[in-house]
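Thread: Newbie trying to understand structure tokens

Hi all, I'm a second-year student working on a class project, and my supervisor (Dr. K.) asked me to get a predicted structure for one chain before our next meeting. I've only ever worked with sequences, so writing a 3D structure as a token string is new to me. If someone could post the tokens and maybe explain what I'm looking at, I'd be very grateful. Here's the chain:
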Amino acid sequence: MRLGKIPEDVRKLIIPMPSGEMVYECLGCGAKFPIQRLYYVCPSCKSLMLLKDLKFDRLIRVGANYWHRLFDHRLMVNHQSVRGVFCYHEFIAPEIPEEDIVFLGEAHTPMVQAPDELVKEIGARMYFKLDGLNPTASFKDRGMACALTFAKYLKRVQKLNNLMTVCASTGDTSAAAALYAASLGPEVKSVVLLPKGYVTPQQLSQPLGAGATVIELPGVFDDCMKVVERLSEIYNVVLLNSKNPWRVLGQESYAYEVAQQFDYELRDMVLFVPVGNAGNITAILSGLLKFFRAKVLIRLPRIIAVQSARANPVYKYFLKPLEQRVFKPVEVTPSVAQAAMIGNPVSFPRLNRLAREYVEEMGQDSFGVVEVTEENIMESMVMANRRGLTICTQGGEALAGLRVAKASGLFKAQETAVIDSTAHALKFIDFQNAYFNGTLESEYGIVSKPELTNKLHSLELKGVKVPSLGTEMSQEEKEDFVIAAAEEIGNSLGLSPKD
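---
Reply by user tm_fold:
Sure, no problem. This is what the structure looks like when written as tokens:
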């Protein structure tokens, strides 16, 4: 829709204008710092930072109907700066001007109601948020749109000639970081560090295709993360992992979209979210709290975070009573949900703070964590795929979380689940193929269920000439081949001839 067709009272608000007063706020000592430079940790106490709008109260005064109309009309208009995560500019990064906004087609991914057969099998009403339909096929594009928008802003205001971005990744972060950095031109270089042997070929191809310098390191993601943290401490580079608070801001858009897609009514809903590095679950909690405090929402949904038993420090932490909780990193073992293979989530301090605030607003059962097995994950992914929904292994992890929550009574009969499928299944297709063929490596501890597997059928014909490249066939030979192939397939499928 053209801007001129938008109602006049909304039209002047469609294009976002800089507003508010953004600062970094230290999670530890509470110190505040201006946004004219990039902070990852507090210069004083080394705690993580959150970004805060000191003038947030102005968002409360205008009322819910104002925001509902504005966001809904922004989705209608054909204007690039409000097509992505910055549809919610006032809640994400209100001080950043429109000229710096980076948009590559991210966000506003489909919310799909589960097919009836899957609902019957799981025994729960559910929707799937298909975040694999972002440009690099994962939710990480949300955060990168915001992080690179800030990098573009910083480059302009500080008159920097060159920038180098760095990140550690299990695959999806590197793809998003490389593509969004590439969109800013040759003056912005991208370097990504990957754990050798723990990134799928499909994921590895993405940063290479975007022109990034890709470096494999021995170890797992946690080891790569320590290296990039060291790089960001001693060199002038832009760290693009979720330690960067601008990444978290962009990922808040997931929460805003869920609210908008359900017409801002989330009563009796439960969001199931994989934990990974804890940036996404942090962002979702933060976004929902902002909408609630600004009265855009009148009630918050429940949130259930999901971790694989192979990498479960957050589950172990929240399993204990409040007064006994002490966070301890864990040594991970291989998981098919590769983004889950993180034993020391960087954003845990943010998650802990926001989960506490969430519980204070909505009660003790408003936030929880469940643990799932590797078999749960693979079976859930295949189960969804077999019933009409293509989800990734992390989506399988979230769906497995619903199954565990339902079995334990944590998920109630009147509730509706929203499953976060964070990436596209094709990124992890080798795991599905190995599951079908019974060739998953023993380190995953998964035994394939015959009723969930599927295999290629190869047609072998005898007594007729078959097509092959470079070989000519007569018309009669072609007809004989078609007749023989159709008859063989019909017999193998048990088909009955027409009367």
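A couple of things are worth pointing out once you decode it. The mean pLDDT is 94. The longest helix spans residues 475-493. Feel free to ask follow-ups in this thread.
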